[in-house]
Amino acid sequence: MNVHEISITLSFGAFLVLFIGVGLYSGLHQKQTVEDYLLASRQANPWLTGLSTVATSNSGFMFIGLIGFTYGIGIAAIWLVIGWILGDFIAWILIHERFRRVSEGGQANTIPSFLGQDSEAQPGLTLVTALTTLAFLGVYAASQLQAGSKALNVIFGLDYRLGILLGAIVVTIYCVAGGIRASIWVGSLQAILMIFSMLLLVIVAIVSCGGTIALWEKLEDINPGLLSLAPPNLKFGLIPFALSWLAAGFGVVGQPHVMRRIMSINSVANVTKARNVYTVLYIIFACCAIGVGLASRVLLPGLLDNDPEVALPQLAENLLPGIWIGIILAGLFASTISTADAQLLTCSAALTQDIFPQAKESFWAVRGGTLGMALLIFLIAIFSDDNVFVLATVGWASLGAALGPIMVVRAMEWPLSRNLGLAMIVTGISIALFWRFGLGLGNSVCEALPGMIGVSLVYGVGRILFPVTPSEAVSDRSS
Asked: pTM of whole model > 0.70?
């Protein structure tokens, strides 16, 4: 191993040790109760929660998937970012405060229990929501481990399976030790590192291209279509494409791993603080990712025929000295495990609280569930497709379509029967998957949009045709 490789290894390794150390330290502040493990006793700092949510929401999708997507289609990728951020912000404004208040009022510790309140009378909705969470978040978390492994393969030549194993081990150690508190504390550190590393790389990459004007000119020389605001081969035009990513952004309300962070904030009033931190940093981070993707197309012209999703680690390898490559790699790896840890804990909560409620009062059973889910997610990552963009968007869009509208209904405290809730989940999943894999239209319109429209129609028609009686309502309490 030469000096260059040693520098990369040391700087990268130092951050991994720091992540584990912070996670283990958070465990010292933990009360050995289920509520503290799952929700930090609903006393999480809003600034740390907003900061960590940047890391949790963006994940390897931003470092790997979005950069690869931008590499392929050019500046038109900006619609994905604009739509996603705007939709996300609308969800914070309209839903998140209500959700924080109503979930605490109903003493719900998990998203399935929130959706299926009064579930002793109507257990089906809680169970199906929990199974849906496990299925899609498991695949989503696996895509994060794959994203981190791709970077390790480019820099170190490490076998994909070993990279996945390393990510799984790091995440499992601090999640088991500190629960969601560890996820929030470590996620805050990871978010700072992610934004710093992305800023560093985009500045160096644009300078290497000769500046922004030279970058623009070189992109036009490569392919004028890279500077077009309309992505190529859209079957329905630009407006539906942009609106579908707005729907995907609003689909954050259907992401149990993100919404559990909202549940943990120390008061309803402080949700706004978390939102402001999150939104500002999200905008900065996303713009930098677009810039890196565009610069990569100029500086790494051969990736289109190989794998554009390895653009960031290859760019870092070509432009930076060893110690800075290690920092970039740590930032990328942080982005993947910061999402994987939240998803792991959410799956563990669904497993032990909603699918096997016999264990819901046992602190140690919840920890054991985390270990079991970590093994399952590791196996999914080993054997599934390694296209991070597709896995992440399908997982996010399917959850957004299936659970997002129900989350809105429950947060707004509108009537919802068990059967109508189940019909909404089945409709959302079916439309999202059929749109992507049956019709092959996911590249023209993100499946979140048709899924949400279909589910909303099911709810509206169901309310008209089958009015909810008090005995049928999952919950119809006001705060």
From this structure: yes
